[in-house]
Design a protein that fits this description.
about 375 residues; single chain; 3 domains; 8 helices
Length: about 375
Amino acid sequence: MIAFSNIFTAHRVCRIASSAVLAFVVVAVAVPQADAARLKEIASVKGVRENPLIGYGLVVGLAGTGDKSGTEFTIQSLTSMLSKMGIALDPNQINVKNVAAVMVTARLPAFARTGNQIDVTVASMGDSTSLEGGTLLMTPLLGSDGQIYAIAQGPVSVGGFSSGGGGGAVQKNHPTVGRVAAGATVEKELDYAIEGLGHFEVNLRRPDFTTSLRAANAINDHFGYQVASAVSSGSVEVQIPDNYRHRVVHFLSEVEMLEIEPDRVAKVVLNERTGTVVMGAGVRLATVAIAHGSLTVTISSEKEASQPGALSTGETRVVENTDVEVFEEEAQLNVVASAVTIGELVRGLNAMGVSPRDLIAIMQAIKAAGALTAELELM
């Protein structure tokens, strides 16, 4: 049962809010002014980004946990590698249980230089059960243009294990995926230079017209003249002043350190699988009447032995007794006043002992009635 009479003015009732509900409901209560964030944390310079790399390689030195003999591409890769080293073998005579074919991935930073080292991730492609203790052999890493940008090699670190025997097995995490720390050496640099640029674009990670305009105004206010203009909800174009033409890095550093107050969309996120409710700031309710109740049906069964009477010809039988109980909570229709904040709503619901799953149903119904001024997202 949910009652809203005098909920939002009776603070004494709110003090007895159920701790079990508070543990599941996360609320960002509206504040007069949101905390500002540096521009570098909500946006990035166009073109300055990491680039994905990919390669195919072999991991050797496994303790019998490699690919099985039927994995043809592993055998072909091993045969091809050995042939380049002057060793000719019959593929049918190769046992690959200590070798695993893997895909190697990495991310190349925008300004990585030749000789820099980057981390790589190794993932099994065949039926290997674990990469623990293996070593990745020299693997070229290619970009989207098909050119080699890095060479990877080194011992694989696996954050888990897998073992078994006698029909039993135990596994922790994913032993078929590993990592080689600083395992790739950059061989080719990306062709990107910032010196000599006349302008650049700042792209917001969350496009918003208000935030874009605030960013442009903050940049102009900092330098004292018009150098930035908001061209869309997700982009701000910035002209590099003449006195910074030979100090572009210094100019970019000043721009990305400016504090911006990003505008946020009022949103309520509901996860029905876990009963989690996350409500953002700015959520408001219009006047709405709410009634919520629940029907509980309990079915219990108990098996008993039925014994025949003395000196009778009957047989002992198992009898199952079933008991069905139905309980329905009373639901009252209550009115929630308009302009109620999300903090006041949750305090009132918690005071009445509403569970997170009931709160999910209530929020969906309020949204369907058109009384919730927020975006409702179901996970």
